[in-house]
């Protein structure tokens, strides 16, 4: 596959006065240190937000938080998002307990395919916040892919073509009736399949403009994007398959190796993510919150 050189800026950090930022790759992603998320000034939080806009995903290194402290921190980014097919904590439906026990020996993890979160919603989440409570001694990393670079490295003619297209997003591949058996392999989470998963269809542009940065990104989801409006399956499938391969090309990806207590925050509007299931026999425990977003637009 020919990958054109990106014209956008690199992943180099800008100068900050209140936080320390260290990129994890040349494409996207950065670790943030030197902050206490339970005692953040408005100025420090603003710098975290700036780093998130610059690097698409940030990983705040620190100590393990209580669920209440994680909620307070997450609420600074905006209203909590909806999680339509996953049962959250009692009294806290917006907090998902994402865990795999050491006794679970099938190589299946929650969200174990390239995707952005809940793109089948009318207003998909802007951010996902994931906090590491317990991590395996090795493995369990998360990969990320940069939608800006994927878009910017396409030919001008192809970009123009995609900008006129509308994608169809559905929850069926992840949570339809046919997924009951697969989702049942995830033993320690309550996942609801069936219902309106196959009929819940949303239309979003294949290319979206980020409301904060003004940059355009590919907005294709290998799990939830099921077609292109006005095209039949034989016409749309090759386009979507190419875009999924292109966006997840190694030139556009970064890998985060989890540390206990780390908080990952990523922007679903411009990146994909993929958790790796390579830690059989070890426990991994996370808490996840999504932050509500806006309806995608070109």
Question: What do these coordinates show?
Answer:
The protein has 298 residues and is an alpha+beta fold. It has a domain at 84-128 and 136-255 and 265-291: Clavaminate synthase-like (Double-stranded beta-helix). It is 20% helix and 24% strand. It contains 7 helices and 15 strands. The strands form 4 sheets. A 7-stranded mixed β-sheet has the order 1-2-3-13-5-15-4, covered by helices on one side. A 3-stranded antiparallel β-sheet has the order 12-6-14. Strands 8-7-11 form a 3-stranded antiparallel β-sheet. α1 links the parallel β2 and β3 (57-60). The radius of gyration is 19 Å and the shape is globular. The two termini are 26 Å apart. The mean pLDDT is 91.
List the helices and strands and how they pair.
Layout: E1 20-23, E2 30-33, H1 42-55, E3 57-60, H2 67-75, E4 96-100, E5 127-134, E6 142-146, H3 147-152, H4 156-162, E7 166-170, H5 172-175, H6 180-184, E8 201-205, E9 207-209, E10 216-218, E11 225-228, H7 233-247, E12 253-256, E13 263-267, E14 271-275, E15 284-291
Parallel strand pairs: 2-3
Antiparallel strand pairs: 1-2, 3-13, 4-15, 5-13, 5-15, 6-12, 6-14, 7-8, 7-11, 9-10
Keyword list:
298 residues, alpha+beta, Double-stranded beta-helix, 7-stranded mixed sheet, 20% helix
**What's the CATH H-level homologous superfamily of the domain at 84-128 and 136-255 and 265-291?**
Clavaminate synthase-like
Into which percentage range does the β-strand content fall?
Answer: 15-25%
CATH topology of the domain at 84-128 and 136-255 and 265-291: Double-stranded beta-helix
Average pLDDT taken over every residue: 91
Strand order of the largest sheet: 1-2-3-13-5-15-4
């Amino acid at each position: 596959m020919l990958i054109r050189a990106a014209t956008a800026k690199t992943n180099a950090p800008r100068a900050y006065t209140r936080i320390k930022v260290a990129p994890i790759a040349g494409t996207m992603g950065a670790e943030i240190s030197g902050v206490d998320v339970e005692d953040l000034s408005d100025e420090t939080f603003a710098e975290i937000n700036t780093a998130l806009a610059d690097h698409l995903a940030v990983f705040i290194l620190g100590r393990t938080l209580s669920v209440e402290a994680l909620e307070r921190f997450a609420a600074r980014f905006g209203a909590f998002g909806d999680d339509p097919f996953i049962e959250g904590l009692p009294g806290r439906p917006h907090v998902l307990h994402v865990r795999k026990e050491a006794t679970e020996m099938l190589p299946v993890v929650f969200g174990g395919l390239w995707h952005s979160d809940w793109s089948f919603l009318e207003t998909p989440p802007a951010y996902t916040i994931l906090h590491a409570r317990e991590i395996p001694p090795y493995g369990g990393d998360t990969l990320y892919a940069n939608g800006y670079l994927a878009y910017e490295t396409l030919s001008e003619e192809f970009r123009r073509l995609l900008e006129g297209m509308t994608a169809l997003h559905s929850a069926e591949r992840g949570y339809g009736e046919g997924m009951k058996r697969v989702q049942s392999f995830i033993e320690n989470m309550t996942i609801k399949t069936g219902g309106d998963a196959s009929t819940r269809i949303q239309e979003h542009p294949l290319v979206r403009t980020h409301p904060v940065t003004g940059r355009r990104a590919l907005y294709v989801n290998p799990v939830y994007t099921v077609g292109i409006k006005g095209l039949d399956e034989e016409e749309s499938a090759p386009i979507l398959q190419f875009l999924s391969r292109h966006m997840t090309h190694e030139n556009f990806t970064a890998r985060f190796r989890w540390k206990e207590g780390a908080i990952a925050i990523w922007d679903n509007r411009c990146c994909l993510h993929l958790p790796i299931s390579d830690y059989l026999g070890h426990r991994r425990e996370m808490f996840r919150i999504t932050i509500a977003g806006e309806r995608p637009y070109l």
